[in-house]
Amino acid sequence: MKSTAKQGIKNSSPNEFASTMNRLYAPLCFAANRFLNDKSASEDIVQEAFARLWELVSKEKEIESIDNYMYMLVHNLSLEWLRKLKLQEKFVNSRSLKEVNIFNVIVETDVALQIIKEIEKLPPRSKQVMQLAFQGLDNQQIAQEMNISVNSVKTLKYKSIDKLKAIFSSDTLLKILMIFG
């Protein structure tokens, strides 16, 4: 059943739009970064995608699913960004575009979102270590940021990953280990 963007974001309410943005922003940034390996560019692309969504909301255009629309838009904007910067050849040489399946990116993004939700439930120091690791900081950088030893960072990560192991399946655990390795 098709719906207008406004029906997905009722009456183009700024609160509904903000809620949608809060819900999708981090997963979309994660998805874009899987293509670009550039956090700043990924954030720019996601912001552009939300600007385009707002245009649709304003014009009452029909879309079937806001989530699917946003993932596809971020995917397309990411590829466009690669072309504009003439990095497509480098990207293709290092990682075939065929390897980056949008379905896999969506699944990985969903797993990342589940991990983020569970990290929020960890004790404060463990939570901070895992959030910084999720942002791509290494153990040394996390230790400096938190003014603790590298061994403390490793211990907190180990204990946090143990807690996450109890929650997630083995497939999800492999992805957790790949992210926080």
UniProtKB/TrEMBL annotation:
GO biological process: DNA-templated transcription initiation
Ranges for domain HTH luxR-type: 119-178
Signal peptide annotation: none
SMART domains in the record: HTH_LUXR
Pfam families given in the database record: Sigma70_r2, Sigma70_r4_2
UniProt keyword annotations, A-Z: Sigma factor, Transcription, Transcription regulation
GO molecular function, one term: DNA binding
Protein's UniProt keywords contain RNA-binding: no
Keyword Transcription: yes
Family recorded in the similarity comment: Belongs to the sigma-70 factor family. ECF subfamily.
PANTHER family linked: RNA POLYMERASE ECF-TYPE SIGMA FACTO, RNA POLYMERASE SIGMA-70 FACTOR ECF SUBFAMILY
Protein name (record): Sigma-70 family RNA polymerase sigma factor
Annotated source species: Odoribacter splanchnicus
